[in-house]
Design a protein that fits this description.
single chain; 455 residues; alpha+beta; 2-methylcitrate dehydratase PrpD; 60s Ribosomal Protein L30, Chain: A
């Protein structure tokens, strides 16, 4: 038994081919992949990176392996996808998609598709098709569903999109596609508490874990395992228990745009809702007489921005890196104090800087009609600074550099890649990796690309 949602996902996933992808979609997929792999290499030096690599490297199969970022060692596709996905998310500098329910990070889908592609020696075109499929499913479901308001995490959508992408690259039959979705959805309903309160290491691992489970579901389906059905419209299915009723619009291809073209790259290593707040703060820093003369700072943002990055008291005194990079008050204070927001600004030393803490204490954040009306096309923020002399300085920022309407050049993407990966990979390795990634459609085995990510 099936339902309309499952049937459409399967039929679309089976039918999508490389010839359906316009050149600009192929180009954007490669840009986002380069950005994501740079984030993963940069995140590999973290404590989270050490933990996930240690777990993944305990399993080393004889064949069907996938490479782990940061070490070059191999593991099963499931564990490699989990480890790589967690490292790709650690810095919170990978892409973002804005949607009515908050959106998420569709680049999380690269880790499972890449791991499975490497394990079966898929070529570059097959990888690109499966990745664009996963992006399309993730973004279209984010368009339709507001799961945050119901207490569920973006990993709930991530496990569906990953299951589709993995099923595609593994070449599953329509029936196996269907069962992979059933087996992925039923056991993987993730809670939004992952990103609320004092944020833990798990914040960067939640969707990576969903990707791991999606691979496991697809492998079970490939061997003939059946799953609960109908998974979406059933009496106790997804619509009843999680999302409420929804329908899907037509996905990309055959005249319909692909939503990957509306995915944005981050300029700063922090939550996507704060990118423009940082831009505004840096512009204001050049206009105010002195940081010491700041009396109050007020930040206007969207409902999604406030809920995600200023909705908990912990955002004003972050005890963990994960809380700090999901705090609008913290990153705006950093931008004002240092004139930039870089990876090093989330260290224990910076988080304990008394000048920074005093500046955070002067900040208030509120949802405004102005920013709500601009969302989701723009994740806008307005920053107002009031000085001790009574002067007010104000700046509204709508499209950060990296937003899909203000997208970076290939050269800028490469610059970010080198900056993030430079401490792990030699210049020669990075150049080899970039050459292969820009020409991915010509690569006969994606595992060859991963060879360049061995330190």
């Amino acid at each position: 038994m099936t339902d309309a949602i499952s049937a459409y996902l399967v039929s679309y996933g089976i039918a999508l081919t490389y010839d359906d992808l316009p050149p600009e979609v192929i180009g954007r997929a490669k840009q986002l992949l380069i950005d994501t792999l740079g984030c993963g290499v940069g995140g590999s030096v973290s404590e989270t990176g050490r933990i996930v690599r240690t777990v993944a490297e305990r399993v080393c199969p004889q064949d069907g392996c996938a490479t782990i970022l940061g070490s070059g060692r191999q593991s099963t596709p499931e564990l490699a996808a989990f480890a790589n996905g967690a490292m790709m998310r650690y810095l919170d500098c990978n892409d973002g998609f804005f949607a009515r329910g908050g959106g998420g990070h569709p680049s999380d889908n690269f880790a499972p598709v890449l791991a499975c592609g490497e394990a079966i020696h898929a070529n570059g075109k097959e990888f690109l098709v499966a990745s664009v499929l996963a992006y399309e499913v993730f973004c279209r479901l984010q368009d339709q569903l507001d799961l945050n308001s119901r207490g569920f995490d973006q990993a709930v959508i991530g496990v569906i999109s990953s299951a589709l992408g993995v099923s595609k690259i593994l070449g599953l039959s329509p029936e196996q596609f269907m069962q992979a979705i059933n087996l992925a959805v039923a056991p993987n309903i993730s809670l939004l508490q992952t990103r609320r309160g004092e944020v833990s290491m798990w914040k960067g691992c939640a969707v990576a874990n969903a990707a791991r489970n999606a691979i496991f579901a697809a492998l079970l389906a490939k061997e003939g395992m059946s799953g609960p059905s109908p998974i979406f419209a059933g009496r106790a299915g997804f619509m009843h228990a999680v999302s409420g009723f929804f329908q899907l619009e037509k996905f990309g291809g055959h005249g319909q745009p692909f939503r990957i073209m509306e995915v944005s790259i981050k300029r700063y290593p922090c939550g996507k809702f704060a990118q423009t707040a940082i831009d505004a703060a840096i512009k204001l820093r050049a206009r105010i007489p002195s940081i010491d003369e700041i009396c109050r700072i007020h930040i206007g943002t969207s409902a999604q921005g406030k809920n995600s990055m200023a909705g908990d008291a912990e955002r004003w005194h972050p005890e963990t890196r994960e809380t700090a990079d999901h705090s609008i008050p913290y990153v705006v204070a950093v931008a004002l104090l240092y004139g930039a927001v870089e990876v090093e600004h989330f260290s224990d030393h910076c988080r304990q800087d008394q000048r920074l803490l005093e500046l955070i204490g002067k900040i208030t954040v509120a949802e405004t009609d102005e920013c709500n009306n601009l969302y989701p096309e723009a994740s806008a923020n307005r920053v107002d600074i009031i000085t001790a002399a009574g002067e007010t300085f104000s700046e509204l920022a709508q499209y950060h550099r990296g937003h899909y309407l203000n997208f970076p050049t290939d050269a800028e993407i490469e610059e970010k890649f080198h900056a993030l990966a430079g401490d792990v990979l030699s210049r020669e390795r990075r150049q080899q990796a970039l050459a292969a990634l820009w020409n991915l459609e010509q690569i006969d085995d994606v595992g060859k690309v991963m060879n360049f990510f061995t330190p």
